[in-house]
């Protein structure tokens, strides 16, 4: 519902289309209407890509409107991505994006057309998978499916090698070990008559180990560079078996290594033996001797999480990010809207403050914080707002999404007041201030400052130098006219008109907020160090005019009627200014009009009309 127009339908239109429609409708009532439409809400225009992709996040559906395109924009699936279980979520419903394929066939998602609000979720194999190690073609992770058996898991990694002993396959589930015989199923030509097959349905995080035939081996799995079987006669201890498996990877947690044997678990501490530089001073390692069939497990370190205003939020290894500053570097650095004054580390339910401003801006290393596994470094984002203060109709704080540029912000706050000095408006950004001479894009935290006119009056009419003139304390009408070059030849110094800004503000307010509405009179404004003389310029508004004092001259009567009708003009006779009379003092924002001598009624009316409708509006607004 809009003034003058009544009900206007906006649904189904773009912002530009609605603004155009309103402009056309208002032409009936307004000359050259200017309409600004700002959308403050609505359906999001993004799709979300989550899970095991290189760069999870939100992407503009208008740019990436097909599934393969948005997956490519997100950097593509990671190596541990389980595309067979990837889904598209739309309106709360899930749909698979990959059709069923036979083993060995490439897994390619369907190129579905996307809609705003869609979410693509790509699970990780590490979430629901089983690991196959030993004498197989491609040791690694296998996605867990409903009813997946150990034999099918072996086929998924390319099957057993020629040297594999399928009669001694081991299935590890926690501390439990199950012995399987898959030879009758996978190598029936080698199976003995009547040999019984022993298969099993696997569960998440199970480990299937396929030993080599006719060898006495131990197995090393987990965070090592070359997991797999090792000869037991050479790998006599757990630490040596890890060395034979290529050594521990940088993300290995040697303090939590263990050996599995006959369903039992023996805990180890290999840090003093394999990485003494990371061990506490005086610590002794805890190793163990190995027997054929033993399994040495080296787990991964518990990760450190970094979330919030960084370029690449996610997880980092404690080995690579031992402090908050290193974790930020590993995450690609701080984002532009990072709030460095509010960062903290979340550790076991407690918050530890991190003074990133002192650490980064001042280079104070003592402000850095050491991180532990499973810590979460949280860096909040600054609110995406800007501020408009000073002489505007609606000063305040606004969301950056409501106005992208200074002109947008100008329209959002309703424009300047009549007291605004728009030529001195400033854009405050960080510690810099810039005069607004052109349109600029706004950034979070920007402040637009519109100062108040304080030191000028305006002189028009029959003077050599019309325009704005600076005033000083105690200046009178005579001083300002003299500063403008004095009255020109032909000036009528007996009919000088003065308009006070307060009256103009009230008149303009009625135009802005509705004609005929009575508004509360603003408080009297007094210049610093100068007594207020409001109410001394001509008769008060509420004082009735004496009916018996009719003008003898018809032109004078018309001038008085015009002055009374506008409630904006006080007429002075410059030739009769008493010395020291305070009524002739000038104030910031006053308008002085020096007319030429007139002899006809129509010329006086034209001058007064221009003064009220043209010159005044141009000078003050």
Kindly summarize this structure in a few lines:
With 621 residues, the protein is an alpha+beta fold. It contains 13 helices and 30 strands.
What would you note in describing this structure?
The longest helix has 20 residues, at 601-620. By secondary structure, the protein is an alpha+beta fold. Residues 511-568 have low confidence and may be disordered. The chain contains 13 helices and 30 strands. Helix 12 packs parallel to helix 13. The strands form six sheets. Strands 2-1-5-3-4 form a five-stranded mixed β-sheet, with helices on one face. A five-stranded mixed β-sheet has the order 7-6-10-8-9, covered by helices on one side. Strands 12-11-15-13-14 form a five-stranded mixed β-sheet, with helices on one face.
For this entry, give a set of tags:
single chain; 621 residues; alpha+beta; five-stranded mixed sheet
Q: Got a strand count? A: 30
In round numbers, the mean pLDDT is: 79
Physical arrangement of strands within the biggest beta sheet: 2-1-5-3-4
Output the number of helix runs.
13
Overall geometry = elongated
What's the SSE blueprint?
Layout: H1 15-26, E1 46-51, E2 57-60, H2 67-73, E3 87-90, E4 93-96, E5 119-122, E6 129-134, E7 140-143, H3 150-156, E8 169-173, E9 176-180, H4 183-186, E10 207-210, E11 217-222, E12 228-231, H5 238-244, E13 258-261, E14 264-267, H6 271-274, E15 295-298, E16 304-308, E17 314-316, H7 324-330, E18 344-347, E19 350-353, H8 356-361, E20 376-379, E21 385-390, E22 396-399, H9 406-412, E23 426-429, E24 432-435, E25 447-450, E26 456-461, E27 467-470, H10 477-483, E28 496-499, H11 501-513, H12 554-566, E29 570-572, E30 591-594, H13 601-620
Parallel strand pairs: 1-5, 6-10, 11-15, 16-20, 21-25, 26-30
Antiparallel strand pairs: 1-2, 3-4, 3-5, 6-7, 8-9, 8-10, 11-12, 13-14, 13-15, 16-17, 18-19, 18-20, 21-22, 23-24, 23-25, 26-27, 28-29, 28-30
Helix pairs in contact: 12-13
């Amino acid at each position: 519902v809009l003034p003058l127009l009544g009900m206007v339908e906006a649904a189904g239109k773009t912002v530009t289309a609605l603004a155009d429609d309103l402009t056309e409708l208002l032409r009936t009532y307004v000359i050259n209407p200017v309409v600004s439409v700002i959308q403050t809400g609505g359906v999001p225009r993004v799709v979300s890509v989550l899970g095991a992709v290189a760069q999870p996040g939100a992407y503009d559906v208008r740019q990436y409107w097909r599934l393969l395109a948005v997956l490519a924009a997100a950097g593509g699936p990671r190596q541990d991505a389980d595309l067979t279980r990837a889904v598209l979520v739309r309106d709360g419903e899930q749909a698979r994006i990959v059709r069923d394929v036979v083993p060995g066939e490439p897994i390619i998602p369907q190129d579905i057309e996307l809609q705003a609000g869609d979410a693509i979720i790509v699970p990780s194999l590490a979430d629901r998978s089983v690991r196959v190690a030993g004498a197989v073609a491609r040791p690694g992770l296998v996605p867990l499916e409903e009813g997946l058996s150990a034999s099918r898991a072996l086929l998924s990694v390319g099957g057993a090698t020629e040297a594999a002993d399928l009669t001694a396959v081991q299935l590890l589930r926690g501390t439990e070990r199950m012995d399987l015989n898959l030879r009758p199923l996978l190598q029936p030509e080698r199976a003995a008559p009547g040999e019984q097959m022993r298969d099993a349905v696997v569960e998440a995080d199970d480990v299937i180990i396929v030993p080599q035939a006719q060898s006495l081996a131990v197995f090393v799995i987990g965070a090592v560079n070359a997991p797999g079987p090792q000869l037991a006669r050479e790998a006599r201890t757990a630490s040596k078996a890890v060395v034979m498996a290529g050594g521990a990877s940088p993300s290995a947690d040697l303090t939590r290594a263990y050996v599995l044997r006959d369903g039992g678990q023996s805990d180890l501490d290999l840090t003093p033996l394999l990485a003494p530089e990371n061990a506490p001073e005086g610590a002794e390692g805890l190793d163990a001797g190995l027997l054929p069939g033993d399994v040495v497990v080296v787990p991964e370190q518990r990760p450190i999480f970094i979330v919030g205003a960084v370029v690449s939020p996610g997880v980092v290894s404690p080995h690579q990010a031992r402090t908050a500053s290193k974790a930020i570097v590993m995450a690609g650095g701080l984002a532009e809207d990072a709030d460095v004054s509010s960062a903290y580390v979340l550790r076991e339910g407690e918050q530890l403050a991190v003074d990133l401003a002192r650490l980064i801006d001042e280079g104070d290393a003592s402000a850095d914080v050491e991180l532990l596994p499973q810590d979460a470094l949280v860096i909040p984002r600054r609110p995406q707002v800007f501020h408009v203060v000073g002489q505007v109709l609606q000063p305040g704080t606004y969301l950056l999404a409501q106005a992208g540029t200074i002109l947008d912000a100008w329209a959002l706050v309703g424009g300047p007041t009549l007291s605004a000095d728009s030529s001195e408006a400033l854009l405050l950004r960080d510690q810099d201030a810039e005069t607004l001479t052109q349109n600029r894009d706004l950034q979070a935290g920007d402040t637009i400052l519109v100062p108040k006119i304080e030191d000028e009056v305006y002189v028009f009419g029959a003077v050599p130098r019309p325009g704005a003139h600076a005033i000083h304390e105690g200046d009178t009408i005579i001083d300002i006219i003299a500063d403008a070059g004095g009255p020109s030849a032909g000036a009528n110094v007996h009919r000088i008109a003065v308009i006070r800004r307060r009256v103009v503000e009230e008149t303009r307010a009625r135009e802005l907020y509705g004609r005929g509405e009575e508004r509360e009179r603003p408080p009297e404004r007094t210049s610093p160090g100068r007594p207020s003389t409001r109410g001394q310029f001509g008769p008060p508004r509420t004082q009735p005019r004496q009916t018996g004092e009719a003008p003898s001259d018809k032109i004078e009567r018309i001038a008085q009627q015009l002055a009374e009708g506008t409630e904006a003009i006080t007429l002075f006779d410059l030739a009769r200014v008493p010395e020291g009379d305070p009524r002739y003092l000038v104030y910031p924002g006053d308008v002085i009009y020096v007319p030429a001598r007139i002899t006809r009624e129509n010329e006086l009316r034209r001058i007064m009309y221009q003064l009220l409708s043209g010159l005044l509006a141009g000078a003050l607004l």
